[in-house]
Each structure stands twice: as C-alpha cells, then as structure tokens.
Amino acid sequence: MSAARDIAPSEKQPTVAFATVGCRLNQAETDAVQDRFLAAGYRVVAFADDPDVVYLNTCTVTGRADRSSRQWIHRARRRRADSVIIVAGCFANRVADELARGGEVDVILGQREKLNPLAHLPHGPRRPAEPVVANAGPGGSTPAAVGTRVTGRSRAFLKVQDGCDRACTYCAVTLARGPSASAPAREVREALRRIADAGYEEVVFTGVDLADWRNDQRAVANGEPDFVSLVELASDAGLPRVRLSSLEPWALAPDLIRRLAQCEPWCEHVHIALQSGDPGVLRRMNRLHDLGRVREAMQELIRLRPEATIGADMIAGFPGETEQAFANTQALVAENWVHYLHVFPFSPRPGTTAARIKSRVDPDTVRKRARRLRELSHLKKLAHMRAAVAKKAELLAEQNKRTGYTRNYLRADLRADASRGPGKLVPVRITGVDHTRFTLEAEEMR
C-alpha cells in the first residue's frame, strides 16, 4: 500500500460530491454509492463546494460521452488540487492505464469495484502518493443497486441487471461491462421494500439489457421470472408507479406487452433500442433485423393503452447506410407507434467491429441525417403532446413543485405550486402545450 501525501487530515466532517455521465443505469449506481458514503459519515455537497472526495461515474457509449467524462475529470482537478478524485464506470474501465498515467486521478475503479469505493481509499479523504487502480475487469455478480437516502431526487433508480450477451458491432459498453448478469429476485424485493419505506412513489428499473433480467435459457427452463415480473414485484411492494428503462427489441412480443398492460402501476412508456429501420443496416449492426414482431407488439400496446408513449434510439450514418437505407428509417419513424427518438450520430468506438468497417458515411451527411431524424422526432412528439390536451393525468412533482412527468413520460409545468411535496403524485388536467419549452401545461385538480 502506498504512503499518503503530506496533507493534513481535515478536522471537519469529510465531504463528497458526485457527477454522473450517461444513462439511468449509471445514475442508479451513483445513488447507491452515495448511500455508502453517507453511511460512512461523509456529507454530500455540491461539486462547486470544494469537496474532499469527488466520485465521477463515467460513460463510453459515444465519443461525446468520452469527452464529457474527460472534461469532468479536468474540471474536478482544476477546482481543488487536494481533492481525492475517484473515476469509475465504463470509460474508466476502458482507459484505466491511461488515467493512472495522467496524474489527475487518484482512484480508478472497474465495474466490479465501483459500488464499494471506500474499500479503495487507503487513507480516507486524502490523496494517495500513487494512483490506486482496482480493475478486475467486467463481469461478476450483479447486486441490486439502489440509493434510498438521495436528496433532491423525485424517483428511485434501481439497477437490477448489468452487462450484455449480444455482440452488436458498434457497442463498447459490452466490452466494458462484460456478460449479462441479473440481481437475484430476493435482492430486488428487499431493495423495493427500502424504496417504499423511504417514501418514494416511483421506481425506475435500469440495466444494460434490462429485458434480459432472469431471462436466460436456464431461468426460463426453471420457470423463473422475466423482466415483466419486475413490475409485478414492485406492485407487490406497494409502489404506485413503476418504469422500465430502455428495452431491447428482441424481448418485445405481444404476449409480454399484454402482461405489462395488465400491471396497474406500470407507467405506459416504452423506450426501444431500435438503432435503425433498415434491415441491411441492422444486419451489419448484428441487431434484430425483422421488425415485424416489434411493430405488432407496439401496436398491441397502443390498443391496450392508447395514451402510451413509445420512443426509440436511432443511430444516424452507420457505415454502409445508403440513402435508401436512411429513407427506410425515416419511414419507420413516420409510423403511428413511434412518438419520439433519441438520435446518435455514428461514433466509432475503439475495439469494436464497426470501427474497422471501411464504408464510412461522410461526416457532413451523418450530421444532416441526425438533424433530419431529430426534426422528425420533434414533430412526432409535438403531435403526441397535443393529443394529451384536455385530458386528466398524474404528475410526479419534482423539487420545485412546479414540474414533473406524467405516467406516459411527458414533461409538464404546473401553473402553481403542487399541493403535495416533491416526489409525490398530483392529479392534473392538461391545459395546453408550451411550444417554446416543449412541455405540457397543466393545472392541479383539487
């Protein structure tokens, strides 16, 4: 173990600040880590308050995520030279050696180590003489990760799955996180009880491939639960609202959608990692290229829950994407079951198969296609929001008591402060659409 630098220990309660780059899965992990620091006697402060320890949970899904992760590291070190900077997550896992050589980072934690950072602080809130690298690589067991003492958050994020067994040619997350692993159902039940006891009225289940939770062949053969059972477990715990984060199209089938639609607490919102609407592009991505079952499942959802909101991830400009292939994606987006998109210009990730494909699309064309998809998304979502006007809804109030999300994941602004506190459900009537803020306007029903 290396000796500590000659820095006088703080006489006050040690402080820690958190920053998260990336998805809800990362946020669930950060929330769980925050609980660990609180239990160890740390006080959580803002990033600008010169904390003794900074915990950065990073992302590597795109080149932009890499840049954002680097910027947080540089910003943290410039802010305070004596802070212990811990870098964890997918970006840290991929470039651990580089970070150790860079001189700005004190502790680099891999996927297996990042949920227990205190075990890797050999001298508490003091910088070690040399960077501590704890990176056993991806994989391993996946505990249910949830933070239940997080302030300033209206909903709880519960990580129940990690890793992925797919081999999508563009994806670096699988390289960083390893094979699929699920949290045991008993741990999920315990975590849901803690969430309910903490007073949350909404939980969001997260994972890299959430639909794969307990859904491997062995689990199916043994009659063990699938991802729809997560909603049923949350319902049993008494939680009034339950969300599922992004789902892979492989898992979407009409029978599962019918089961979901029967679960009253389930918030009628589905976000699908589609990536393209062209079969040829999807084959090169090593993705599901027959979208017929997805269409059937989503049309069944709209039949059963007409107010449902359905979103999709799309990658613009994947290598080999022709004008016709892009037109096929546009045609899919125009279908009545797609309400909005998350658009990603293709970003070659080091170590992936797609990074080696030669038939690259011109960067200017990639930008134009991404912009066109975002424009289509804007129009589709605006039409979906207009359809909500004059209808009753249920808002989960945020900290300012003026904003929140409906069950079908449309953001709304209240005319006056909600009568209930942050994180509580408020019945509202949708009165209009704010085209400038791209939100619904709502008034509380008292």
What does this structure look like?
- With 446 residues, the chain is of the alpha/beta class.
- Helices cover 31% and strands 21% of the residues.
- It has 13 helices and 20 strands.
- It has helices at 24-39, 63-79, 90-94, 96-102, 173-177, 185-197, 217-221, 228-236, 254-261, 279-285, 292-304, 323-333, 363-386; strands at 15-20, 43-44, 53-58, 84-89, 107-109, 132-134, 145-146, 156-159, 161-162, 181-182, 202-206, 241-244, 269-275, 309-316, 340-345, 392-397, 403-405, 411-414, 425-434, 439-444.
- The chain has a six-stranded parallel β-sheet with strand order 2-1-3-4-5-6, with helices on both faces.
- Helix 9 (254-261) runs parallel beside helix 11 (292-304).
- The longest helix has 24 residues, at 363-386.
- The termini are far apart.
- The model is unreliable at 1-10 (pLDDT under 50).
